[in-house]
Amino acid sequence: MKGAAELAAEQAAFWNGPGGQGWLASYARIERSIADVGKTALAAAAAKSGERVIDVGCGTGGTTEALAEAVGPTGHVLGADISETLVGAARSKRVPNATFVVGDAATHPFEAAVHDLVFSRFGVMFFGDPVAAFRNLQQALKPTGRLVFVCWRTPQENPWGLVPVRAAAAHLPPMPRPGPEDPGQYSFGDRARVERILKESGFGTFTIEPLDRPIWMGESVAEVVANAGRFGPMARAFAEATPEQIEKAKAAIGEALAPHQSADGVVLPGACWLVRASAG
Ligand SMILES: C[S@@+](CC[C@H](N)C(=O)[O-])C[C@H]1O[C@@H](n2cnc3c(N)ncnc32)[C@H](O)[C@@H]1O
């Protein structure tokens, strides 16, 4: 079993390498897919004028910008992310009352006990040592502060992710199967694990509510198929596959997604947890 330091180093390498590049290259499509979930999470966070906020795993800073607008000129948002590539893109937005830092949520020396809100849209599932990271974030909050984040539930509850992977799997080299404690897209799917992490890291009362939303994957099946394997669990299998395997995998994905084509594009169900916790 890999230790926390090794898992953290792997994630840092991924998000500073192919993960960050893939996220950036696909960001316009990704943003359309997750904007609605993000809006619900931002509404739940209810950032107020003058507040100090950390947007953890902020990526290109889309939600940091929204939070900065909500806290206004008397407030401040710190976008923190492990990826130099994505923080570079976030900084280029030049949000006046936001600053961005490249750092690991588990070890970055956030100013202690001064923040009102720690927020994240899908940025908390990749920590090598989640308890260390959440403890570090908890210590950055004022005693009256709050944590609000969204994360994916299990793959089985997320057909937008599972349907293409299942269809392609038979034609591709084996895909890595992360262990229950490994970081990854679905690592917070198990509600009991999220509860345990929050309790062990010192948060007070919390709620973990299902948040179900349709996920837009592209305008057409052809577009989704063309982008398949660029990012997410299939990326490595695609990288190792032969051209014939890729062709067969893409044909299978197209067939599996065809029933989900609608006038609004290719849309499949998505399932998240909306998590709220008090600092103490
Ligand atoms: C799925 S992306 C979400 C990005 C952004 N929140 C959004 O919604 O557009 C996950 C982000 O978490 C960041 N990340 C992964 N591990 C991290 C860590 N240990 N500390 C801080 N950020 C991390 C990644 O670099 C990536 O930007």
Share in helix: 40-55%
Structure classification: alpha/beta
Hey, roughly how much beta strand do the residues contain?
15-25%
Question: What's the order of the H and E elements?
Answer: HHHEHEHEEHEHHEHHHEE
Distance between the termini: 32 Å
How would you sum up the global shape? Answer: globular
Average the pLDDT over all residues and give the rounded result. Answer: 96
Superfamily (CATH H level) name: Vaccinia Virus protein VP39
CATH class: Alpha Beta
Estimate nothing, just give the exact number of structural domains.
1
Please write out the topology.
Blueprint: H1 4-16, H2 18-25, H3 27-45, E1 52-56, H4 62-71, E2 76-81, H5 84-91, E3 98-102, E4 115-121, H6 130-140, E5 141-152, H7 159-169, H8 191-200, E6 206-218, H9 221-227, H10 235-240, H11 243-257, E7 261-262, E8 265-278
Parallel strand pairs: 1-2, 1-4, 2-3, 4-5
Antiparallel strand pairs: 5-8, 6-8, 7-8
Helix pairs in contact: 1-2, 2-5, 7-11, 9-11
The structure holds S-adenosylmethionine.
Short description:
Helix content is 42%, strand content 23%. It is α/β, with parallel strands linked by helices and 280 residues long.
Care to describe what's here?
With 280 residues, the protein is of the alpha/beta class. It has one domain (4-278): Vaccinia Virus protein VP39 (Rossmann fold, 3-Layer(aba) Sandwich). It has helices at residues 4-16, 18-25, 27-45, 62-71, 84-91, 130-140, 159-169, 191-200, 221-227, 235-240, 243-257, and strands at residues 52-56, 76-81, 98-102, 115-121, 141-152, 206-218, 261-262, 265-278. Strands 1, 2, 3, 4, 5, 6, 7 and 8 form an 8-stranded mixed beta sheet that branches. Helix 2 packs parallel to helix 5. The protein is globular and about 55 Å long. The structure holds S-adenosylmethionine. The site of S-adenosylmethionine has 22 residues, from helix 1, helix 4 and strand 2.
